Amino acid sequence: MELFIDTASIDDIREIARWGCLSGVTTNPSLIAKEEGGFTAILEEITQLVDGPISAEVVSATADEMVPEARELAALHPNIIIKVPMCAEGLGAARRLADEGIRTNVTLVFSANQALLAARAGASFVSVFMGRLDDIGHDSVAILREVMDAYGNYEITSKVIAASIRHPVHVTQAALVGADIATIPPKVLRQMVRHPLTDAGIKAFNDDWAAVQAAGRVG
């Protein structure tokens, strides 16, 4: 499973990209709004930090408006993926963009039916929101599994992104049901690195090495 970072924070992307495990970035208008600087400038800087798919979302309401907006975003860099919302207008835009060779990420998907529609509209990526499903009492893992099973039945090539990740368990669950990608907030990525036994082991190694040095046994 590929790991994307879900943020528009240049500082977070720069830090975590150094770990060597990021394959892409997802942004949205809410994430962009939290950062300083222009939308285009932020996207261009992200393309310099991560060499992989970078989702940038359109904000127009109709397909006729989304398509030219998407063309402008896609022209910024070959790695830009156009995020469109899961709605009738978004599906129409996804189909037109796919026909032009522009890759899309259909976002705000909450059911297997929506995921099937997005795939047939030509989406390159389909973002299934786990946390928000859990928030309303639905079983996000079961729904993600339905999407993966349905896609597998028909050899659908759209990549499934497990999105709205709230904690490391979501990442594990997404991997176990076969999601292609998990897009993960910086906070959760940092949580994934840590384990109390790892921390204790590192401390023990460091303490033992300090004792070796204090005894003059380095040479």
How would you sum up this structure, described in words?
- This protein has one domain (2-194): TIM Barrel (Alpha-Beta Barrel), CATH 3.20.20.
- Helices cover 52% and strands 17% of the residues.
- It is built from eleven helices and eight strands.
- The protein has an eight-stranded parallel barrel with strand order 1-2-3-4-5-6-7-8, surrounded by seven helices.
- As a whole number of angstroms, the C-alpha radius of gyration is 20 Å
Q: How far is the first residue's CA from the last residue's CA?
A: 44 Å
Order of helices and strands: EHEHHEHEHEHEHHEHEHH
What's the helical proportion of residues?
Answer: 40-55%
Largest sheet: 8 strands, parallel, barrel
Q: Uncertain spans, ≥5 residues at pLDDT below 50?
A: none
Percent of residues in β-strands: 15-25%
Whole-number tally of structural domains = 1
Mean pLDDT score: 97
Topology:
Elements: E1 2-6, H1 10-17, E2 24-26, H2 29-33, H3 39-49, E3 54-57, H4 63-74, E4 80-85, H5 88-99, E5 104-109, H6 112-120, E6 125-129, H7 130-135, H8 140-153, E7 159-163, H9 168-176, E8 181-184, H10 186-193, H11 196-214
Parallel strand pairs: 1-2, 1-8, 2-3, 3-4, 4-5, 5-6, 6-7, 7-8
Helix pairs in contact: 1-3, 4-5, 6-8
Sum up the structure in keywords.
219 residues; alpha/beta; TIM Barrel; eight-stranded parallel β-barrel; 17% strand; globular
